[in-house]
Amino acid sequence: MGAGSQLPAAVQASAPPDRKLEAAEAGELIQLLRVNTPTQADRKRLTSLDLDLAESAGPGFVDVVAYGSSDQRLLRLAGFTWKTLEDDLEGADREREKADAEYAQAVKSRKILATLPSGRTSYRQLADFNSNLASLAQQYPTKAKLITLKEKSLEGRTVQGLEISHDVATSSGKPVFLMMGLHHAREWPSGELTIEFAYDLLQNDGTNARITNILAKSKVIIVPVVNPDGFNLSRTLGYEMKRKNCRITNGQLPTAGQCAQSSNQSRGVDPNRNYSGFWGGPGASTSLTSETYRGPGAFSEPETRNIQSLVSAHQVTTLITNHTYSNLVLRPPGYASAANTPDETVYKSLGDQMAAQNAYTSQKSYQLYDTTGTTEDWSYYATGGLGFTFEHGASSFHPAFSNVVNYYFGSGSTAGKGNREAYLIAAESTINPARHSVITGSGPAGAVLRLKKSFTTKTWNGTLLPDVLETTMTVPAGGSYTYHANPSTRPITIQNGGGTESWTLTCERPTGQVLETRSITVARGAGVTANLTACAAAF
Ligand code: 0X9
Ligand code: ZN
């Protein structure tokens, strides 16, 4: 995006290609500034400066991560004023390390009793996430299954997650709740909250009635670290403010150590601008060194393709992508000129219900600033699953760890509730048939039912990209099935007045031989019956 045409020429000319690198070379500190933006137009103008913006909830301001004097000069020339929230973000991080050590000691000596479900007292490293996921799968073999996403990250790391449900190995037709963390590397609490929810579900299944019901009727999938390369770097001292992935040169894999080179600190693709929905539109940059770089094409990055494949292979009826910070529950649309989603009523009520528990502000994403190519820009409009961005915390990407405990269980007016309660509400919405579609009927036990839909997703400039949603379930013993699915017509089609769309349902032998094909048209909140008699006769 770069400096927009509405800026004075002096500002445009003064913007060097890589201000972050310039600041680092000059040994300048990274600061957190609260920039005054009294009007929506000011906000838009600030967005067009291509600075490192934080999502900020307050009226009349946007927080900016400023890399030294050149960023400040850019702001000043554009006529902005600000107050400094943090004059040395990396120094603040060293303070946080000290506070975390004290917190861990206080828990150990039982001066503080409340801890997270896992008992963690400090931020995980990448290896901790992966070993915790493996241990949970081992400890709860019938309920938790370790999954490895389709592609490795740019630096060759696996991306792992956990499927959690009763009889997790059974291909059951249950609706799916997907929770993710760490699209953005520096947003450490987003991964912690995601994995802690997994501990909570597994530890309390069978004793907590709500959790037992959730795991009986849905499958919860968690992916705590979507961007492992970025996160791994951000957990290394001196790289705490890393946000994006490790794409150093478009179309090329980074060489060993390249992502950590100080001259490459501005480079990378923003995973939350790389999804195909409206890709390349407002609120996303064309510059590889911008913190909101969209990438050379939609889904150019393995980290986002992983989530595309995961969502396409499951009936994800609810999705939460966790970020920090600003205490927000955000729903589409992501840019201001877009119409309300066709699901605004149900979307708002679910968002508001969750926000009542974590005491965040529930609103449409664009109400702070425009974005395109974000996770739900693709997932919601393509699948109909209700996706939300949660922005945790008041004023920091990764505050002292004790804050994460408060985020999870609530504090002050939300004590005992917090995001735990919000996540449970999301999971309960996942199993609520009024919020998705249900196909029921008879079929031969052991047959594979496949729901498939192929279409194209349009980017901002009109490029059409192929998408295939394809999920399966097995007809259980007894010969009647229930298939929970997203509505057959996509929200983007409803919004564009494009008529109805259908799922193709096939009934197959486990070998893949198709015995019956049906076209299923079903709306949100509706159910249809499909008795697969031809399949039963031939099976
Ligand atoms: O900019 C982002 O990707 C998200 N904020 S963050 O500070 N975690 O980077 C917010 C995306 C939400 N969408 C819009 N604000 N339109
Ligand atoms: Zn984020």
TrEMBL record:
Q: Which cofactor does it need?
A: Zn(2+)
Limits of the Peptidase M14 domain: 122-415
Entry-linked SMART domains: Zn_pept
Q: Which Gene3D superfamilies match?
A: Zn peptidases
Named from the GO MF annotations, one term is: metallocarboxypeptidase activity
Which Pfam families has this protein been placed in? Peptidase_M14 (PF00246)
- Is Hydrolase given among the entry's keywords? yes
Q: Which family does it belong to?
A: Belongs to the peptidase M14 family.
Entry keyword set: Carboxypeptidase, Coiled coil, Hydrolase, Metalloprotease, Protease, Zinc
Sorted alphabetically, the Gene Ontology cellular component annotations on this record are: extracellular space
Q: What is this protein called?
A: Murein tripeptide amidase MpaA
Q: Which residues form a coiled coil?
A: 82-109
Q: Name one GO biological process term.
A: proteolysis
- Give the annotated active site: 391 (proton donor/acceptor)
Q: Does the keyword Protease apply?
A: yes
PROSITE patterns according to UniProt: PEPTIDASE_M14
The cross-references to InterPro entries, in alphabetical order and at most eight, read:
Carboxypeptidase_T (IPR033810), Peptidase_M14 (IPR000834)
